[in-house]
Every structure is written in C-alpha cells, then in structure tokens.
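WARN no homologs supplied; continuing
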Amino acid sequence: MASLQRIVMMSGNANRPLAERMAAHAKRRLADVTVSRFRDGETQVIINDDIRGADVFIIQPTSPPVNQHLMELLVMIDAARRASAGRITAVVPYYGYMRQEKKTEGREPISAKLVANLITVAGANRLLTVDLTNAAIEGFFDIPVDHLSAMRHLAERINALRLENVVLVAPDVGAVRRVERFRTYMRDADVAVVFKDRPRPDEAVVSGIVGNVAGKTAVIVDDIVSTGGTLIAAAEALIANGAERVLAAVTHPVLAAGAAERLAASPIEKIFITDTIALDECPAPFEQVSLAALLAEAVNRIHYGISLSELMSDSSPVV
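OK structure emitted
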C-alpha cells in the first residue's frame, strides 16, 4: 500500500462527543460529514471534505438504536471507499450484536459474524474496537482487528478510591478471564465468581457464589450493562453473603429502558462505566471514565505503523 500521508477522522451520529474528544487528543479536526436520513428513514451520507488517498478513521459505535447506527457505519464506509480513501479503519468502540457470537440452540443465527461480513464487504480495511464479549469474534473478520481493553483504565479509577479488603467479582463464569486481567492492576484483591442461570434472555438468577465475600468491598467487573439484571442479581447475592459494600466496573453502558432506575435502587453504590456509548446524562450511581485518549493513541499508532501491543499490555501506562 502506498504511503498514507494524511489522517482523516470522521464521526457518525452514534457518539459524536467521544469522536470530538478523540480528535482533540490527536490534535486533529473531525472531517465535515453530513449523516442524515431521507423521509422514509434511509441513511444518507455526504463527505464534504476531500479524502482521496487519506488514512480514514470512521468513529461509530453500533450502540442503540443498533440497526440505525450500524447502517450509518456501513454507508459511511461505502462513501469513503467510493471517495478513493487510501485505507479505511472502522473505529467501533462498542460492537453491537457481539452477544450473538454463537449458536445456543438450533436454527439460531450467529449475528456477530454477519455484522463482521457486512463491515468487511462495505469496504473497511481494519477494525478498532474495545472489550468484545468474546475475543474469538476477532476471528470472524478477514481484516486486521485491534482489540483494546478498558480494564486498566477502570481499575485505575477503582485504585484511586484507596479501598481496603477488596474482592473482585465475576458476575458469571464467562467473566472470569476479564476479572483476572482486572486483578493484575489490583494485586491484593481476592476473586469470587457468581454462578447464574438464564431462564430467559436478559434475565439472570444467581445459583451460588464461589469465594469469600463476607466483610469485603465487592467490585463486580463486567463488559456490558444492559437491563442491569446480572449486576443487580449479583449485588443482592453478595450482600446476602456478607459483603459490606458493592461497586461495579463495566465497559459498555448499553442501559436498556428502565435499567438506570433499577440500578439506582439496587445495593450497588457506584458503577464506573466508559464513554464507548454516548449517554444523554450520567445519573447516579454512574461515573464515566473516558477512553478517548486510549483510542486516539491507537489511531495514531495505526497510521504511523507503530505496534499497539503496548496499549494492550497489562504493564502498559494509562494514556
């Protein structure tokens, strides 16, 4: 590929504030792009700047409304390709449909793979994302994937509280590896695992806890909070088993209707989230930790051909 002299960063409508913070950290401006809809709901994209031969980064999490924001991303990629962009990187901090990454019963789609195909066929040359539910989703793509983690940034915020007698809690078995990574930044913390059943989608029932939580400050670590059911069920079980306090650190605040209110009424004192998904407001008990600097650094490294391994390393400094 010929040398790409210019970085062009552009944003859809999904999370313009994050894109603006990223551009500020990268000391660049966002390209002039019009992303709108026709009266019948079709997505319309017009790139008003010249991007011929440029290294284009399209910042667009596929957050709720997922289908609308996904379509915006695909049309923006296609528009950039047809405008002769030199390379196109889809910056998707939150990858919608990632919870549908496998078949759990017959005649069920693997939607995470379908979305990977759509992004690739649209014309993306690379994907930059944060905290996929399952790292195996990277293998759904036939283009390079840079998979960053918010765990260090969230852990640093927890460390700033100077808590004592901490136990890190995996709200289900699938979150154990994430908790172990989180623990590398909080070496004195113990680990506990909540076992849960899902009688129906978006409903969680705790069946037991492995690990000592009595008298401890419990910090639940997860990748997504949607209905809040998993966090609330885990928190109630932790309190019932003797935990003194419950906090949570979660990357993606999907927050389905009513979730914020239910979480505010739960035993969880504070929920630390990131800005991968735009929120109209950040009400109690939420506190937002920005990943703009991390993502901006990743954009610069991708452009200049610098390894991202340091950003993914558990010993790397926070940016």
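Residues 66-82 form the longest helix (17 residues).
OK
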